[in-house]
Amino acid sequence: MRFTVISTSLLTVATCALLSSGHPTQKKRLLRSDTANGINDVLSGDEDCKDVAVIFARGTFDSGNIGVWVGPQFQAALESQINSLAFQGVEASAYPATLETYLAEGGSDSGAQSLASTVTDYVDFCPDSSVIISGWSQGALVAHKGLSLLAPEVQAKVVALTTFGDPNKLFTNESVPVGVAFHSECIGGTTLDPLCSDLPADFKFPTSLSDITDPFSELPGLGSGIAETAAAASIVLRFPGQLLASRAAFLEALTDTTKMQRLLLTPEHFTYGNNGLTSDAADFVAGLPAVAGK
Ligand SMILES: *[C@@H]1O[C@H](CO)[C@@H](O)[C@H](O)[C@H]1NC(C)=O
Question: What is the disulfide pattern of this chain (predicted)?
Fold first, then answer.
């Protein structure tokens, strides 16, 4: 079920907004959920095997199991193109998506194990399905790592890895196995996303923690819809504290630009769901021979 709820208070806000706006086209967007369990629905027998299964790892700070910033928008874009689709987030209990697991583990190890085990169970149950592994931000690291944990016969069912704001090159730079198509969405240009971009030579690195956290005051203005605005407010509250708790990592990064680049979480990094790039990634997935041919 897609419209299971973000939280009771959010639902109340969303319901009030619906009652006051009354535009049916906004209904879907306002009630977009941060949780998707399409693969579990198949494994439990509530749904038949789907032609295409997508497992998505949310980014740092994101809620539910697919978050609010990229997962639901990617899910909606895929659903508009693929009829037989199971979309699911990496189990939240296995993947806390904190700044600590991002920095200390280079993407949560337990999240990667959980992703691999979900994919393995699904492929055992639905051997004719094509699997796509995906993730945004720290979730992209979890996606790379999870893919690398799969047994060869399971990996053979994975047709693509598709990531958003992917910092893999700044960490272990996992290679993508031959036979798995790789598609990476990264914001370039003047508001480039430093987590996935090559930085220009004149790039101005932060010299204090507030250089990183201050721009986040803009984040609530970048959100689209109730869930994102609420999440943005929560990030503005939590990010400085979590970054402060990782101060040792910041001090170490002052002498190492790769490590500093890992910390360059910018407000733009949160716009993949609204800047057309989730639709672009869905076009890529829908055009894969193993997907288009089903
Ligand atoms: C990452 O690995 C690729 C090859 O898989 C290589 O071309 C690239 O230079 C590496 N990048 C970094 C930053 O190590």
Answer: 49-126
